[in-house]
Amino acid sequence: MKTIVSTFEMQKFSEQARLRKKNIGLVPTMGYLHKGHLSLIAKAQRSCDVVITSIFVNPAQFSPNEDFARYPRNIEQDTQLCTSAGSTVLFVPPENEMYPEGYSTYVNVERLSSILEGKFRPTHFRGVTTVVAKLFSLTKPHKAFFGQKDAQQCVVIKKMVKDLNLGVEVVTAPIVREKDGLAMSSRNVYLSAEERSQALILYASLRRAHEMVDNGERNVAVVAGEVKQMIETKSSATIDYVAVVDAESLADIPSFERGIPALVALAVRFGSTRLIDNTIIKAR
Amino acid sequence: MKTIVSTFEMQKFSEQARLRKKNIGLVPTMGYLHKGHLSLIAKAQRSCDVVITSIFVNPAQFSPNEDFARYPRNIEQDTQLCTSAGSTVLFVPPENEMYPEGYSTYVNVERLSSILEGKFRPTHFRGVTTVVAKLFSLTKPHKAFFGQKDAQQCVVIKKMVKDLNLGVEVVTAPIVREKDGLAMSSRNVYLSAEERSQALILYASLRRAHEMVDNGERNVAVVAGEVKQMIETKSSATIDYVAVVDAESLADIPSFERGIPALVALAVRFGSTRLIDNTIIKAR
What we know:
Two copies of one chain form a homodimer. By secondary structure, chain A is α/β, with parallel strands linked by helices. Chain A has two domains: about 1-175, HUPs (Rossmann fold, 3-Layer(aba) Sandwich), CATH 3.40.50.620; about 185-275, Pantoate-beta-alanine ligase, C-terminal domain (Pantoate--beta-alanine Ligase, Chain: A,domain 2, 2-Layer Sandwich), CATH 3.30.1300. In chain A, about 40% of the residues lie in helices and about 20% in strands. The first copy, chain A, has helices at about 5-20, 35-45, 75-85, 95-100, 115-120, 125-140, 150-165, 195-200, 200-215, 220-230, and strands at about 1-5, 25-30, 50-55, 90, 105-110, 145, 170-175, 235-245, 260-270, 275-280. In chain A, helix 6 crosses helix 7 (about 150-165) and helix 9 runs antiparallel to helix 10 (about 220-230). The longest helix of chain A is centred in the middle third of the chain and has 16 residues, at about 125-140. The relative contact order of chain A is 0.13. The interface of A and B includes residues 15, 110, 129, 134 and 166 of A. Strand 5 of chain A pairs antiparallel with strand 5 of chain B, so a sheet runs across the interface.
């Protein structure tokens, strides 16, 4: 596997690969890779000639009171994991090349960026769409791979690609979970043993939501209410939101409708660690 | 010359041209072409294998109280002019493909978009950078050509290209003027005979600024003051601004410095028609 640091080299490499008619896949990450990331790399490898994994802890998507400085990093381990997973190129741009002094251009997907996560993290998606637009320019991918764990991010990026005619196919891959059900996240290392154990309620509550809909419950408020109640039994849990929305448009829906995918998404803080999780439910 | 209407066809054409290693030049316009536009097409033709001229009156860069609806259009004449000037492709996308229902993604260059023109047209440059980003995605140019008459636009677009790593060379070309000195503009057709005659004061005042600096005046306030005074002698003129700024950064400067290009930029309304003009002065 080749490691590229310079943005100039990255762009030159991608232009050459395009001219040689290679199919380019991009897996954008913030590093500290887990099995969720590796599933994206493996998926990319199955349909692309060149798989570029980028690692960049993007300051623009953290607000000043968030965990940018302490976000976990381990570039040696990440390099090994990328190689084994089948990445062709590891792109690790330095912050001062991505955001040089005086940087001032931002891409924003209005409305979709200000609901759900956006209510609690107002500049988050603006940072995400900006860095993804930059990474697309630098790596010129035919396909880009994102994890369904960041469900709203997937919707926001698809919207940006469509609106700005970026011509990149956005591929999403299912959430990968620990054996006990906790969704894989680089942030799980922040959890104490007690918090880690209590956080299992997230997946349990999402499974309960499936069960309720399978048993005929169609009322969104009833299902969301039960999910909330389950989470609230845990002493270290503070709910930011539990929402049920249309999985494609993220619009509010009053009820689960047969055949229409609904997204049940939640954000819950356990102590000082904020976790998100979600599931898609299609009523039968 | 080939005319392309569909955004899908445009992108396919450009991808093919890239694979055939053609050098692509883009001349983005709002149509109603004049000699200024034609000089850009001719310039593009000298260094590119494929010259794409786009015509799109971009609603996103007009505010609701501006002249979007009455902006002059003449596609038959434009087609003839493009052909004679050496354009290879005329791209005329329909509005509902550029901004389909629910469109919500915008590219914004902060700070540079909110000064000078931006003070009077707060959403103007956001509209410009958004449509130019879209046109770049659709036409995949190596070079893009812009007229120096929109001096701030040139600076804003160069900044977007650098920040978002768009990898497009932004080429600017000098202002083209009528024989009597009025800067070419599609909006000149709005002027009454009287206003047209009074508007000649713009170029006269810019020449006077050159003369003052040539004669040793270094104080920006003095030069700007004289330019304003000259314009104010015209009964139909209302000044939006007369500014002297660093030509590259658009930062305010107190004085003309030897060898450093200063931009003298102005916006003046004659009746209901708003004209802009500018010149670059390098003190000796």
